[in-house]
Design a protein that fits this description.
Elements lengths: L10 H28 L6 H5 L2 H14 L1 H13 L6 H10 L8 H12 L9 E2 L5 E2 L3 E7 L5 E7 L3 H18 L10 H14 L2 H14 L6 E2 L12 E5 L4 E2 L8 H22 L1 E3 L7 E4 L4 E4 L5 E3 L2 H15 L3 H11 L8 H14 L1 H4 L4 E2 L5 H13 L10 H19 L3 E2 L1 H11 L8
Parallel strand pairs: 5-10
Antiparallel strand pairs: 1-3, 2-3, 3-4, 4-6, 7-9, 8-11, 9-10, 12-13
Helix pairs in contact: 1-3, 1-7, 3-5, 4-5, 4-7, 4-8, 7-8, 10-16, 10-17, 11-12, 12-13, 13-15
Length: 444
């Protein structure tokens, strides 16, 4: 884990971080530009700006802000995908790594603010060094008097108050640095990033979603969701049952049949979320999925990015997947229009390319046998199709925000299935929900 580093809490101190970053990058450009000019290579602002050391400096400084800076990077990297430049993709990959934890003094100040001066009396012991640290908060191990272990997620100070200004400042920086594509309309993403970050900063909301998932999966033998301890939770502290489990990507040595079963359950859970729960945890980060070797249960963590899905949207995606499973282009187009994927002024050529991309993503639904995620070129084909679309940037249309989050989740699950080398009968999994649905998908 990275070394502790104080989280800047005031708007001024957070803005100063960005100011010092801009100054540092500008200094690098001046020095290297002068060297380049003296050697007769000329002066190219963009190539000077996008040097690896400037990209790394940008990533390190943004990660020190935690919160909006890191989460925005994660959202953009997942949602805009191949529309981003390689340089920005590199920056956002760095932002997805673990954040620096808070120093002990700042941590104690947060706990006193949330739990009062007698915060130590709540447990027999709490570890001051976190066992996990990410964009919004860090997680500590605590012990009750009876020896029961708890996981205490503590939010970094100032995160909730700084969301709007942080997002605006980071976008301004990325725009000025020309790291964002000129033709990419990210206004819907920016607005949604702010709303999503504000929602994720409310641990009371996350606790409610966690409880809803636990209730929804209460009779499912394949999943485990931690208990919540409301008496030890606040808007910025979430206390849960500590569950010992292995990260999902570390189970690659298990038998192939077991790995395939785990990945199949995750895809089946996606269908449950879309068509039964009408509630989807949209963050497919590998760290949110763990596995218990002894019980053979998948453990679900982190419900901050959970979104409600309307019945209308659920219906539209059922129709989209059904049409995709039948290779029905007209059906995919009708469903995509209903979702709100196309503007009226988009040309047919572009619509056809997007439909090709949808049909590509539905390839596992058309396989009559188990789909081999490891040896399939599906991810590469989707990437190449995305690059082809990005070349038509003047026609690019930002999809509905809910659609972005849904696609983000499904793409992440495909990556997990590929990482585990899974072979899955996705068609049969989906048909179970299609046949059970009372919705008349033929109406599309």
């Amino acid at each position: 884990m990275a070394a502790p580093r104080t989280v800047p809490t005031s708007r001024l101190s957070r803005f100063a971080k960005l100011g010092s970053l801009a100054t540092g990058v500008a200094t690098n450009m001046l020095v290297d530009g002068a060297k380049s000019a003296l050697t007769g290579k000329g002066w190219d602002n963009k190539s000077l700006l996008l040097q690896p050391k400037n990209i790394e400096k940008l990533a390190i400084q943004l990660s020190h802000l935690r919160g909006a800076a890191m989460k925005l990077g994660q959202l953009l990297s997942m949602d805009a995908g191949d529309l981003l430049s390689p340089e920005l993709a590199q920056l956002l990959a760095l932002l997805r790594s673990d954040a620096n934890p808070m120093p002990h003094k700042q941590l104690v100040a947060v706990l006193k603010e949330q739990w009062g001066d007698d915060w130590l009396a709540r447990f027999s012991h709490i570890e001051l060094r976190p066992f996990a640290a990410a964009s919004i908060g860090q997680v500590h191990l605590a012990y009750k008097e009876n020896g029961e272990q708890l996981a205490v997620k503590i939010q970094y100070p100032g995160i909730a108050k700084s969301v709007v200004s942080d997002v605006d400042n980071v976008i301004s920086l990325l725009t000025l640095s020309r790291l964002l594509p000129k033709d990419l309309n990210i206004k819907p993403l920016i607005s949604e990033a702010k709303a999503q970050l504000l929602a994720e900063a409310d641990y009371t909301r996350e606790a409610q979603y966690l409880i809803r998932y636990k209730n929804s999966l209460a009779t499912n033998p394949h999943f485990k969701v931690p208990n919540v301890y409301p008496e030890h939770s606040t808007q910025q502290v979430l206390t849960m049952e500590y569950i010992k489990a292995e990260p999902i990507e570390s189970i690659t040595e298990l038998p192939n049949s077991q790995k395939s079963f785990v990945a199949a359950q995750l895809i089946d859970l996606f269908f449950k979320e879309m068509f039964e729960f009408k509630l989807i945890q949209t963050d497919p980060n590998f760290a949110n999925f763990h596995y218990q070797l002894d019980t053979q249960k998948i453990v679900l963590f982190d419900f901050g990015a959970t979104r409600e899905i309307s019945s209308e949207l659920s219906h539209a995606y059922l129709a989209l997947f059904k049409a995709g499973s039948e290779n029905n282009r007209e059906g995919v187009l009708r469903a995509a229009l209903h979702i709100g994927y196309f503007k009226n002024d988009l040309v047919d050529e572009y619509k056809n390319n997007v439909i090709d991309l949808f049909l590509m993503a539905c390839e596992p639904l058309r396989s009559n046998d188990e789909f081999d995620f490891k040896n399939s070129e599906l991810a590469l084909k989707i990437k190449n199709a995305g690059l082809a679309l990005s070349a038509q940037s003047q026609k690019w249309h930002t999809p509905p925000v809910d659609a972005l989050f849904i696609h983000r989740k499904l793409a992440g699950l495909y990556l997990i299935a590929a990482r585990l080398g899974a072979k899955i009968d996705v068609k049969t999994l989906f048909q179970h929900y299609l046949y059970r649905s009372n919705l008349h998908v033929s109406a599309f």
